[in-house]
Design brief:
Elements (H helix, E strand, L loop, with lengths): L1 E2 L2 E2 L19 E5 L11 E8 L2 E8 L6 H13 L4 E5 L8 H16 L3 E5 L2 H9 L8 E2 L2 H6 L6
Parallel strand pairs: 5-6, 6-7, 7-8
Antiparallel strand pairs: 1-2, 3-4, 4-5
């Protein structure tokens, strides 16, 4: 499903929005709730490529309100045949159990195809993964370059 190094548009999401990512400069997807009280629930997702690794970088809170967009992005990546996936959470100040569940779903789907998932996170988010023992499923890094090197040489 790759054309020019990006993810081809997936079938329309329930919101009617198609997902796509472009390796040249990346693509930003966003979801904003409608009322002012929910502004903290804004989420943008940047998708880029580092060699043969797809890097998904959410910006903003990852929770029950914004998790749908993140899940759609992850499903599109796995469906496109990505084998090496890094999620960079350094710009996520808050994540609830919705985010953790999406990581488990993504990791299961990737492993079923021989793929691997790595997570880059600051201390607060990394502690959530450790508390839930999810660091046993996929490695946690505090640096994107280290996470990319963690995959080893390209196959």
């Amino acid at each position: 499903m790759f054309a020019g190094g990006g993810i081809d548009p997936a079938p329309a999401a329930p919101s009617g929005r198609a997902l796509s990512a472009c390796a040249a400069g990346g693509r930003t997807l966003s979801k904003d709730t409608t009322d002012a009280a929910s502004r903290r629930n804004r989420l943008e997702i940047h998708v880029d490529r580092v060699g043969d690794v797809l890097v998904v970088a959410p910006v903003g809170d990852l929770d029950i309100v914004t998790g749908g967009l993140f899940l759609e992005t992850m499903i599109a990546a796995v469906s496109a045949g990505e084998m090496r996936l890094i999620v960079d959470l350094r710009a996520v100040p808050f994540m609830d159990s919705t985010g953790l569940a999406i990581f488990l779903t993504t990791d299961r789907a990737l492993r079923s195809t021989g793929g691997e998932l790595r997570v880059v996170a600051h201390t607060r988010i990394a502690e959530m993964f450790e508390f839930a023992w999810l660091d046993k499923f996929f490695p946690l890094y505090d640096d994107l370059d280290d996470a990319v090197r963690g995959f080893g040489p390209s196959g």
